[in-house]
Design brief:
8 strands, 12 helices, 11% strand
């Protein structure tokens, strides 16, 4: 189906348009990109990964595995398969999301994606399609055709816009391309990781006009209050403290001002952890989870950027403040 002509969205949003989007009492859907921890030898710590998946689910968020936070781009196919196997066992039929990642592999794009989607669905997960370098040179029509072909093979999947600051194979689609993807019934939502509020507001406006049931999952770890304006979320920052995110979300649903205390502290954590170089946030996550007593080792993947040990004092302060907030 050809798209209707889009209503142009101005590059500058009047502040009234933004404020009018705020929806108190809305139930927020939270998805947490789970960290894959590593041990001192630089190998995946699968037993503690299983505990993090379980902790995330018990905290009230939907786990997302084989994501950027889980080093999907650095894992072997065998390790990705092990992540899926463990997640299926831990979740026992409960919902989870898993990345369909094909970067670096040769062959037809649709066939590669279908192989990943079939595997994820067979494990009980909802696929989210990572972008790849081969998609970057394609037209809007060609991109839409790829998603349509892949979506036809499953009941539901998620799309993904990943900014290049996270991965060189990522891209932020034109609004026309987003329009085309929203019109594919099996695509239930899209994670938007541009770190740009304006682009996300544009997608929310388009969603409201075109398909209100479509989910926009913010991936903006520098503006986690986008949930106030109608976004849900799939965040790497949620891996640091899924229990605190759930408390924040519950306060919003109840219309309680305590939402802001949680949001402000979590945003401070996000601004610190997601500073340049952004990919080093995974090491920050490991440091923070160790400080909280949730994993025994704070080593990142051997090929991933690291943070300095001097970060620990700041992270410890945030963790202590978060613990006190959680006790209220």
């Amino acid at each position: 189906m050809r798209p209707e002509k889009l209503i142009p969205t101005p590059k500058a949003f009047p502040i009234e348009n933004c404020l009018n989007r705020i929806a108190p009492h809305r139930k927020i859907e939270g998805i947490c990109a789970v960290l894959l921890p590593f041990d001192q030898k630089g190998t995946p710590d699968f037993p503690n990964f299983a505990r993090l998946v379980d902790f995330t689910a018990r905290s009230g968020l939907t786990p997302a595995v084989n994501m950027d936070t889980g080093y999907v781009h650095l894992l072997s196919q065998q390790d990705r398969a092990e992540v899926l196997k463990i997640t299926r066992q831990v979740m026992s039929g409960r919902r989870f999301v898993a990345g369909a990642f094909i970067e670096g592999r040769g062959g037809p794009i649709v066939d590669l994606y279908l192989g990943q989607v079939d595997s994820i669905c067979s494990h009980g997960g909802t696929p989210i399609l990572f972008q790849c370098s081969a998609l970057k040179g394609k037209s809007t029509d060609e991109i839409a055709a790829v998603y349509q072909a892949v979506a036809s093979r499953c009941d539901g999947l998620l799309a993904f816009e990943l900014g290049e600051m996270f991965a060189p194979f990522g891209q932020i689609y034109s609004l026309e391309a987003v329009d085309r993807l929203m019109r594919i019934p099996q695509i239930l939502g899209m994670k938007h990781s541009s770190l740009d509020r304006r682009l996300e507001w544009e997608r929310l406006e388009l969603r409201d006009r075109l398909r209100p049931d479509f989910k926009i999952y913010t991936g903006n770890d520098l503006a986690i209050d986008m949930v106030m304006y109608g976004s849900d979320y799939l965040l790497g920052l949620a891996a640091f403290a899924p229990d605190a995110f759930t408390r924040r979300d519950n306060h919003w649903a109840k219309g309680e001002a305590e939402f802001f205390a949680f949001n402000d502290l979590l945003q401070y954590l996000g601004s610190f952890a997601f500073r340049d170089p952004v990919p080093a946030y995974r090491h920050s996550a490991a440091q923070f989870l160790k400080l909280r007593g949730l994993i025994p080792c704070d080593q990142p993947h051997p090929q991933s950027p690291r943070r300095p040990s001097t970060d620990l004092e700041i992270l410890q302060n945030i963790a202590q403040r978060l613990d006190r907030l959680m006790e209220t």
